[in-house]
Amino acid sequence: MPHNDDEGVPAVDAELRASILAEAVEIARGQPGGTLATLHSEDGTPYVTFVFFHMTDRGEVIFGSQPGPQHTRNIVGTPEVSFLIDNREILPEDWTRFDRVIVEGTAKAVAKDDQRYEDLLDALRGKNPLAARFTAEGILFRVEPRRLMMRKGVHTERQVLEFPTED
User: Fold this and answer.
1) What is the pLDDT of residues 63-86, one digit of tens each?
2) Measured between alpha carbons, how far is 53 from 55 in angstroms, rounded to an integer?
3) pLDDT, tens digit, for every residue of 1-20?
4) Is residue 6 part of a domain?
5) What CATH number does residue 126 fall under?
6) How many structural domains are present in the chain?
7) How many angstroms separate the Cα of 111 from the Cα of each of 4, 56, 65, 121, 142?
8) Whole domain around residue 84: which residue ranges?
């Protein structure tokens, strides 16, 4: 299987890439929230929290926060994050259907005067109106994905997409 030279991760052709991304977006669509992992701004220890989110068709994770919470302070200090989306509520019924998506990337605040702001906020509003209302009063974050990993079910191959970095 061909590999990307810089990461050692199998290269993915455009059609398979689009299919993996579409499946990841579909998994995300069914979940109101996910687990955001950041690095503690004071001492670098991991910190996780649940946030309501929306995933765009490009694999970006959109979520909101206020200035005070620990995860916001952590992002200001170290913007690299990891975001877990899963359907663990099905585990008691059928653990073989446990699907999960992990997005690794850089969280960036989207300024209210950014041309993307209203569209991103509307997308969040479409999924969770209350989260969008609090976000409009706070900070809208967009995770620029560096890597997306998806696994559907148990004992399945992990599918990995690498994203070009934005400068």
Assistant:
1) 999 999 999 999 999 999 999 999
2) 7
3) 333 444 555 567 889 999 99
4) no
5) 2.30.110.10
6) 1
7) 34, 18, 13, 11, 10
8) 14-156
